[in-house]
Amino acid sequence: MVAGLQEQIREWKMTVYAGPVFEMAANQFNVIADHLGIPGDERDRLLLPKRAITVSCPIHRDDGTIAVYEGYRVQHLLTMGPTKGGTRFAPTVDIGEVAALAIWMSWKCALVGLPYGGAKGGINVDLSKLSRRELESLSRRYMQEMIPFVGPHTDVMAPDMGTNEQVMAWFMDTYSMYQGQTVMEIVTGKPVFSGGTLGRREATGRGVAHVSRRVMDELGIDPTKSTAVVQGFGNVGSYAALGFHQMGMKVIAVSDHTGALHDPRGLDIPALMEHATRTGSIAGFSTELAFDPHQILTLACDILVPAAVERVIDAKVAAHLKCRVIAEAANGPTTPDADLVLDQRRKEIFLIPDILCNSGGVVVSYFEWVQDLQQLFWEEEEVMRREYQILDRAFERMVTRAKADDISHRTAAMAIGVEKVRAAKNSRGLFP
User: Fold this and answer.
1) Catalytic residues (predicted)?
2) Which among 50, 120, 190, 250 is annotated as catalytic?
3) 154-170: per-residue pLDDT in tens?
4) What predicted TM-score, i.e. pTM, was given to this entire model?
């Protein structure tokens, strides 16, 4: 089996999806495929994306020159409904990373019971070098290039790292102008006044805090006597931190791309969020609380939230973690070699895998899509109630499966997702 796995990985490295993030997704999938006993001849069809698009996006720069940026969109699975996934604008974006994120989105949607396959998109660009006008031009050009491949019942875009409500509004407007009518349901994560849903901006972070609270209840941890550390203070990390703060927890450390802050007495999260919203980062909030960001993951705490990028917890970091719960708010923050270490520490550390922990965002994106299709909008309390209901159901299934099969929470969650996708593909045949 090991020799076969190595041979399969060698074959995948020869595809356009080669890269460390895609290899990580492939490794995770093979662990699940081995656990479920999936034959080798079925694995490529479950793992490899259905469709991948690469486009050139030329724009006029403010100085009169022309710049061309490379954009991607990967649609992993079209068997279970339209694909769904975010769009990332970052200098690290490549086709392998985008494919891995689309694959994880498929397992996530299946786990929480949404009628979607996974997708992801992005542009390789350094946003710090773009003006607002240039960003709008690039956003509109990217959507224009994607029009033949996306649609409300084909592929529905959403925000991700480097994109936001405004970018989604530009996407929607560009698509709508080509259709000759307003098509709100082509993207989610839009401004509320442009067809977005109440609670979408906060949904992922709120979901992280809610599922973490479920784990605290399971372990008998009193939130008012516990601490949290949040690595990554963007949209997801900041709202997760706010959720913990509202529970009465002390958020003792946070970090972003500019540095880290640490206060054992607990940080003032509402004030820090206001500062980050106004300035774009946590830099300048306090010089007295400055901390080494490289040490933030191994601080002693009850809840550790990696909410930044992929592959930040490797085997070495995993061996030195001093938390009771890992709440994976980012996609793929834990490497496969770290999973081996954490599997040995299952009795010490409760892992909430990313495909469950951060799924609140896609759940509420689904609600937004449904509301747009129906032209009937809900109150925020209804959005939150339905989000938590879905997360609770998925959490219970994961915990029950992990206990019954004596497996890790990641294996349990992914097994549920992969089983659903496999059953759907087998029932429909080879075409979709």
Assistant:
1) 120 (proton donor)
2) 120
3) 999 999 989 999 999 99
4) 0.91
